[in-house]
Amino acid sequence: MAVDRLSLTFGALADPTRRAILARLAKGGASVSELAEPFDMSLPAVSKHLKVLERAGLVSRGKEAQWRPAALRAGPLKEVDAWVARYRVIWEQRLDRLDEYLKQLQEKEQRRGRKG
Predict the structure, then answer these.
(1) pTM to 2 decimal places
(2) Contact (CB, 8 A) for 60 and 71
(3) What is the DSSP letter of 3?
């Protein structure tokens, strides 16, 4: 089954360890050993997380002699942002309507208070 790019990105972002790795890479490139430091897991486990992030296009790996630094690639995050933005508009419109309804209720209560 073919998996679309957005699904790959969301799948990669679903794991907190992978999100922490991306946060670390936002500060600059790092080796697997450097990325593994804050975690209580083996280097192969961190490498597996990196492979998921690479497959999603969120990380690239360089080749400098024996050092293969990982680097953040933010492009797929723009697609996530665009997808979320569509639903943000819907929720903002709903909240605006709710806000207007609550203001109307408040005005009715104030008018009743003045009469009673």
Answers:
(1) 0.77
(2) yes
(3) -
pLDDT in tens, 57-81: 999 998 876 778 899 999 999 999 9
How many Cα atoms occupy the beta-carbon half-sphere of 27 within 13 Å? 8
Cα(103)–Cα(72) distance, rounded to whole angstroms?
Answer: 46
Q: What is the 3-state composition of the chain as percent helix, strand, coil, each rounded to the nearest 5?
A: 65, 10, 25
pLDDT digits (tens, 9 = 90+) for 28-54: 999 999 999 999 999 999 999 999 999
Chain centre to alpha carbon of residue 17: 12
- DSSP state at residue 74: -
Token code pair at residue 4: 């679309």
Per-position DSSP letters for 31-57, written without gaps between them: -HHHHHTTSSS-HHHHHHHHHHHHHTT
